[in-house]
Amino acid sequence: MCVTLRRLLEETAGYAADYLEGVPDRPVTWTAGVDELRASLGGPLPEGSTDPHTVIRELATAADPGLVSIPGGRYFGFVIGGSVPAATAADWLTSAWDQNAGLYAGGPSAAVVEEVAGAWLTELLGLPPGASFGFVTGCQMAHVTALAAARHGVLERVGWDVNENGLFGAPPIRVVVGAERHTTIDRALRFLGLGTSCVVPVAADGQGRLLPAALRAELAAGGGPTIVCAQAGNVNTGAFDPLDEIADAADAAGAWLHVDGAFGLWAAASPALRHLVAGAERADSWATDAHKWLNVPYDSGIAFCAHPDAHRAAMSVRASYLIHAGPGGPRDQMDWNPEFSRRARGFAVYAAIRSLGRSGIAELVERCCAHARRFGEELGRAPGIEVLNDVVLNQVLVRFLDDNGDHDARTAAVVEAIQDDGTCWLSGTTWQGLGAMRISVSNWSTTDDDVDRSLEAIIRAAGIVRSRG
Ligand SMILES: Cc1ncc(COP(=O)(O)O)c(C=O)c1O
After folding, report:
1. 140 lines ligand 1 (CB under 6 A)
2. Which of 235, 259, 293, 299 to mutate for ligand 1's pocket (most ligand atoms within 8 Å of CB)?
3. Phi, psi dihedrals of residue 204, rounded to the nearest 5°
4. What would the DSSP string read from start to end of 102-161?
5. Three-state DSSP state, 199
6. Distance 140 CA to ligand 1 centre (A)
7. pLDDT (tens digit, 9 = 90+) per residue, 101-129?
8. CA distances from 298 to 69, 137, 292, 301, 323 (A)
């Protein structure tokens, strides 16, 4: 290797380590506004070259104030995991190795690592042995992949080849979903040409759980190719649809059952929480993330399918210049993925699973849930704060009550004050018509002290907003 490249990588490792070491002491939020970032990162298209040491040094400096401390233990926004050290390091190697993980021939180790990690994940998440899988960018694309398999499967059952004939003139597909499904389901259906008019929402309860009786009634009311989308882990409440009952209803109707388990499917990795996903293993397809609860760097999601033939038929592609492994040969990733050329995403997943092991993953999930319960208990005890959800997993929904009754406005103001304070970061939502603050504990590195400091910051912000009137 040329000396310059080694020195560049070592310098870069230094910037990365400095950043990560500094995370516990920096504000969790960004400190520069968009104008400042545009000024420091922008400028005209460079005409000539700049030496890479300068590029990386200046990039690290200019980007720094616009970074959010997502890797740290006090980031509770959206549903965002950190990255366990082995996964971060494996991700660096992935870039250095720069394999094209579309085909076995583009990097045999990348292909075999995905094969191994996919089988480990299948076992960890309690899915049927032999389920097929594809490593994609996130749960959004896992839905696209799995629902493409579903679309193929349900139409094939009625004699329609969607690969050849597309959807013009196809028997209509009904997609029955819970009223509180994640928005990425609808978006996946749009991408797949099914449109949102195929979506039939059925009622959910106050926690966001699909009501099986409403599902049964809806399924009985119509026929034809049907996909049911259930959810393991609501993005706001963490609640689980009653998957076993839903699987019964889908079975009886001959429907394809897809489970959105972006983070909730990881409950299966914990003996203490596994009951929450009982019945998930009966589904036809599943979508989840590794960048959430496995704490793998972005981006990393996985689609699984109980019908490898439908999955492969929906995804695979051939070209004369490609080198495809034959039947019984090694696994070509593009047979299971919507991408063609692609990053070797499996290395980081593999490294995370190896470094944590089955017990470490269970412990990570359970620890996050214990922190979430503490948030729920302590905030629930504080005057003028209401916890809106049953804290069954890692999500806590909180509302700040206002003396004059304008709880939505006060909640939004408290969220803003917490974000400005910078001790921790979380954001707002509207839950069944009520303004609320969301806390998602999804990071391996969150400690009791992080929870203490964040609780103090939340309660302090609530007090400041109240005294401001
Ligand atoms: C339940 C659920 N499904 C799907 C998604 C989308 O995941 P991603 O952002 O990885 O595409 C999320 C994201 O939070 C989610 O919570």
Report:
1. yes
2. 235
3. -125, 165
4. TSGGG-HHHHHHHHHHHHHHHHHTTPPTT-EEEEESSHHHHHHHHHHHHHHHHHHHTT--
5. strand
6. 6
7. 999 999 999 999 999 999 999 999 999 99
8. 14, 8, 9, 9, 29
User: Is the CB of 301 inside a 6 Å radius of any atom of ligand 1?
Assistant: yes
Alpha-carbon span 143 to 414, nearest angstrom: 34
Give the predicted TM-score (pTM) of the model.
0.98
Q: Classify strands 199-202 and 427-431 as parallel, antiparallel or unpaired.
A: unpaired
CA distance 250 to 112: 35
How far does residue 265's CA lie from ligand 1's centre (Å)?
12
> Does the C-beta of 233 come closer than 6 Å to ligand 1?
yes
Question: From ligand 1's centre to the CA of 314, what distance in Å?
Answer: 22
pLDDT at 467: 67
Of all helices (H) and strands (E), which one includes residue 323?
none
Would you say residue 466 has pLDDT above 80? no
Pocket flag, ligand 1, residue 307 (CB < 6 Å): no
Average model confidence (pLDDT) across the chain: 97
Query: 464 pLDDT band (50/70/90 cuts)?
Result: confident
* pLDDT tens track for 320-331: 999 998 888 999
- Nearest-atom number in ligand 1 for the CA of 231 is 1
Atom from ligand 1 closest to the CA of residue 261: 1
C-alpha–C-alpha distance, residues 413 and 428, integer Å:
10
* CB 218 near ligand 1, within 6 Å: no
User: Cβ(258)–Cβ(230) under 8 Å?
Assistant: yes
Beta strands, E only, 120-179:
132-136, 174-178
- Using CA atoms of 356, 359, 363, 365 in order, give the dihedral in degrees to the nearest 10: 80
413 phi and psi angles, rounded to 5 deg: -70, -40
What is the largest distance, in Å, between two alpha-carbon atoms of the chain?
71
- Using the atom order of ligand 1, give the atom closest to the CA of residue 301: 10
Q: Are 311 and 157 spatial neighbours (Cβ–Cβ below 8 Å)?
A: no
pLDDT of 465 over the 90 cut: no
59 alpha carbon – ligand 1 mean position (Å): 30
Which one of 70, 75, 79 would you pick to mutate in the ligand 1 pocket, going by the greatest count of ligand atoms within 8 A of its CB? 79
Q: Which of 290, 273, 249 is nearest to 134 (CA)?
A: 290
Structure tokens at 100: 């094209």
Please give the distance, rounded to the nearest whole angstrom, from the Cα atom of residue 184 to the centre of ligand 1.
7
User: For ligand 1, is residue 184 a contact (CB within 6 Å)?
Assistant: yes
What is the average per-residue pLDDT within 193-213? 97
Q: 364 in helix, strand or coil?
A: helix
Please report where in the chains the tokens 């914990």 appear, as a residue. Answer: 270
> Quick check: CB of 262 below 6 Å from ligand 1?
yes
Taking the C-alpha atoms of residue 51 and residue 59, their distance in angstroms, rounded to an integer, is: 12
**d(CA 141, ligand 1 centre) in Å:** 10
